[in-house]
Write a structure and sequence with these properties.
By secondary structure, this protein is mostly helical. The chain has one domain. It has helices at residues 3-11, 18-44, 57-62, 71-79, 83-89, 91-113, 125-139. Helix 2 crosses helix 4 (71-79), helix 4 (71-79) runs antiparallel to helix 5 (83-89) and helix 5 crosses helix 6 (91-113). The longest helix has 27 residues, at 18-44. The radius of gyration is 21 Å and the shape is globular.
Length: 151
């Protein structure tokens, strides 16, 4: 393919037949299946009991809590209807659930309709999320700051 032909081929939208739509739906539907299987496992196998899940490697190496520490226990509590218990284990993970679900719904809608992504987060958003995660990470390891954030 010549250089000009290659650049024209990149700009041309891909055909969107039934097969292309099915392939596009494979991603969000597959992700939902994996998430459902993981949720069923975490609902059935209590992370409070030692030996079922591997320990947090960051905590094992440093003795400190990482931003994800308590997420399995929070998911287990939430899947049993105990939202307060989930918040006690990892408030950041609980707050992230609606964002993750909304992102998945947008992905599914784009795949089903064939529309391209029309909105991107503002450039400052990833940095802001990083700042929140690091602040949470620090705060949960300094008992004088926020002892309630430790799982």
């Amino acid at each position: 393919m010549t250089t000009h032909a290659a650049s024209v081929a990149r700009r041309r939208p891909a055909p969107r037949g039934a097969g292309a739509r099915t392939r596009a739906l494979a991603g969000p539907v597959g992700m939902a299946a994996v998430a459902l299987a993981a949720a069923l496992l975490v609902r059935q196998v209590d992370p409070h009991e030692p030996g079922h899940y591997p320990p947090c490697p960051f905590r094992a190496l440093t003795g400190l809590f990482c931003p994800g520490c308590g997420t399995l226990r929070a998911a287990h509590a939430a899947l049993h209807g105990d939202l307060a218990g989930a918040v006690d284990m990892n408030v950041l993970a609980v707050l992230a659930v609606p964002v993750v679900l909304a992102s998945w719904v947008a992905w599914l809608r784009r795949a089903a309709t064939g529309r391209p992504r029309t909105w991107l987060a503002p450039p400052w958003f990833p940095a802001a999320v990083g700042v929140v995660v690091v602040a949470f990470w620090v705060a949960r390891n300094v008992p004088a700051l926020a002892p309630f954030l430790a799982p």
